[in-house]
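Progress note, sequence design subtask.
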């Protein structure tokens, strides 16, 4: 009986010692990447960065623009907290389109480290004028009852001249007017916009739905990052 009790006591002591083992001291919660930008050529590309995270972390990729292609991979995409830098591999697929970009957010919940990734494309951008847009719509019979879609690769550059948030003269924060040196266009975005008077932006109208609204040429439901 005494031997059995000694064995049980020894087991309890070992179990208690195991429970009291301290977690590694990692200090305050923080995360840091050794790069904030990564630039790739158009072909299949890869590079490595170092991320130091004192808490468990994960990576989330956010793509810019209309493309639905998931062209980036991050390996590993999550990890344990450590005081040591962890090597992360970022890989991009070949880009046979226009220049593109994305952001990778490495997060521990309490803090983030953001890396912006850009990749050159094999296509050269050419821009239409807003007069070209109107001419295409007129030639294809756009009217109040007949909407049309623009072709692929239809890019314009224009200045914002009016929106609800800035001038308080429209009935929706999704609506705005833009113009270039040739013509004007009403855009109804899929979400509220905060562009300011005079902002010059590139707008991707590829396959955008065009219509006449109250006699005004309008593109409807355009993604805000188009």
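Output:
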């Amino acid at each position: 009986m005494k031997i059995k009790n000694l064995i049980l006591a020894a087991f309890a002591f070992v179990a208690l010692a195991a429970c009291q083992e301290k977690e590694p001291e990692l200090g305050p919660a923080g995360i840091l990447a050794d790069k904030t930008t990564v630039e790739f050529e158009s072909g299949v590309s890869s590079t490595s960065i170092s991320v130091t995270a004192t808490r468990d972390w994960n990576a989330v990729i956010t793509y810019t623009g209309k493309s639905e292609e998931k062209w980036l991979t991050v390996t590993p995409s999550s990890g344990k907290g450590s005081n040591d830098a962890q090597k992360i591999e970022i890989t991009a697929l070949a880009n046979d389109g226009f220049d593109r970009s994305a952001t990778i957010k490495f997060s521990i919940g309490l803090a983030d480290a953001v890396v912006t990734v850009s990749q050159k494309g094999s296509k050269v951008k050419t821009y239409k004028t807003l007069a070209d847009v109107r001419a295409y719509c007129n030639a294809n019979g756009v009217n109040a009852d007949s909407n049309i879609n623009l072709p692929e690769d239809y890019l314009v550059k224009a200045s914002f001249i009016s929106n609800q948030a800035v001038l308080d003269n429209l009935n929706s924060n999704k609506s705005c007017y833009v113009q270039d040196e040739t013509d004007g266009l009403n855009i109804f975005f899929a979400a509220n916009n905060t562009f300011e008077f005079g902002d010059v932006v590139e707008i991707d109208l590829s396959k955008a739905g065009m219509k006449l609204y109250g006699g005004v040429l309008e593109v409807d439901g355009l993604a805000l990052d188009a």
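The two ends are 80 Å apart (CA to CA). Work on this subtask will continue into the next period as scheduled.
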